[in-house]
Amino acid sequence: QAGEVYGEKSILATEARELQSRLLHMSEERDKHLSLIDE
Fold it and tell me: Which of 1, 7, 29, 35 is the most exposed, fewest CB within 10 Å of its CB?
């Protein structure tokens, strides 16, 4: 049972990392668009 919990935690950690990188990418894209508009 401890293994099950550990497995679920690692899955959540992986999903959290994916979300973080997606958010990072989105904010980078937004910054690009904003700098284009400023010019």
Answer: 1
Degrees to nearest 5, angle at CA 14 with 21 and 2: 160
3-class secondary-structure state, position 1: coil
Residue 12 to residue 5: CA distance in whole angstroms: 11
At residue 28 the predicted structure's pLDDT band, cuts being 50, 70 and 90, is very high
Task: Single out the residue of 26, 2, 24 nearest to residue 34, CA to CA.
Answer: 26
Tell me, yes or no, if the pTM score tops 0.85: no
Distance CA 19, CA 37 (A): 27
